[in-house]
Amino acid sequence: MSKSRLYSGMQPSADSLQVGNYIGALLQWRDLQDAYDAFFSVVDLHALTQPNDPAELREKTRRTAAQYIAAGIEPSKSTLYVQSHVRAHAELAWILSTITGFGEASRMTQFKDKSARYGTDATNVGLFTYPVLMAADILLYQTDIVPVGDDQKQHVELTRDLAERFNSRYGTAFTVPMATIQQDTARIYDLQNPTAKMSKSAESDAGVLWLLDDPAVSAKKIMRAVTDNDGSVRYDRESKPGVSNLLTIYAALTGRQVPSIEDEYAGRGYGDFKKGLAEVVVAEFGPVRERALELLADPAELDRVLASNADRAAEVADATLADVYDKVGLLRRR
Ligand code: AQP
How many Å lie between the centroid of ligand 1 and the Cα of residue 21? Predict the structure, then answer.
């Protein structure tokens, strides 16, 4: 029996991924890649919705791809490619935009939040159609499951609605995908502001653990992480968000259960606990960082791998797009 299809991606919106991206996405992707026919994309077209320096965007795109591989995504097993290398993404997004209601798109909470934050003049139309491009990403590959964080649930719902609408209006062209939402424990918070999500675009660097940071810098950030005055290493998301966040990171990186870590550090204070976590982080990220830097030292080879994976992706995507073009009535070029 053929494997089910899985699709996911990340924006190349920083020089390095952060520990939330690693725990919330990359670790799951790595575990899922054997059971699924997986497509993992570096979504550079999506990243254009934010201001970018062109040379820096190119560099961030390579860096993101290198970190996927360094974290264990195998380009011989999964299809790991750059979104803009497969033209069908932008083309299908246009077709889908013609069956998306203006009101429907206006209800997307991520757009509402971001446009409220930036103001109308600084908000581009690309940000408004962002979820339609995301729907195209997913639907091109006849995707069965989309592993995403809670924040992306609404976008996958829209993708399902668009797939069903297209299929019933023009005939079946798309598999209707399902979101698989990761557990709440997979949400990592900022080390300095442990009620806010850790994010690549955080205003301050002090609360973000970067995959490509020097391990000594990461260790220092952990030692300075915000905790509380209670002094006991105990998980309590409400009243001890800082310590709970550190426990979540510790558990995710070691595969251990939180209570066993609480037991180990019972009566030992935060200093010891943070030192223990710093060792875990350095041991986990040290090799990932080394491998990523090795890959980045040979950009020609990395580009070659990405190109051959893009060819593989395009084969699937182009077949879906050709079917869609036929179904909506575009005249075939002979
Ligand atoms: N703090 C987090 N905890 C758990 N998972 C997280 N992800 C991101 N932050 C955390 C997951 O990583 C993937 C990245 O998706 P993205 O790059 O498209 O954008 P994002 O979710 O908006 O991630 P960032 O790091 O916050 O980027 P910026 O600052 O550019 O917006 C997703 O699977 C996400 O769930």
Answer: 5
For residues 126 and 49, is the Cβ–Cβ distance under 8 A?
yes
Q: Write out pLDDT tens, residues 69-96.
A: 999 999 999 999 999 999 999 999 999 9
**What residue ranges in the chain does DSSP mark as E strands?**
5-10, 37-42, 79-82, 145-148, 178-181
| CA distances (Å), origin 22, targets 36, 123, 141, 199 | 19, 29, 24, 11
Pocket probe for ligand 1: among 21, 181, 197, 201, the residue whose CB has the most ligand atoms within 8 Å is 21
Using alpha carbons, list the distances in angstroms from residue 189 to 79, 239, 244, 265: 30, 14, 10, 21
Rounded distance from Cα 152 to ligand 1 centre (Å): 10
Q: Tell me, what's the pLDDT at 192?
A: 97
pLDDT of residue 300: 97
Dist CA 91 CA 101 (whole Å): 18
Q: Which atom of ligand 1 is nearest to the CA of 189?
A: 1
pLDDT in tens, 182-222: 765 568 999 999 999 999 988 899 999 999 999 899 999 99
Atom of ligand 1 nearest to the CA of 47: 30
Listed residue (191, 65, 141) closest to 320, CA to CA: 141
Distance CA 156, CA 260 (A): 36
Handedness of CA 140, 145, 149, 150 (dihedral sign): positive
Helix (H) or strand (E) holding 84: none
pLDDT range class, residue 40, cuts 50, 70, 90: very high
* pLDDT for position 183: 67
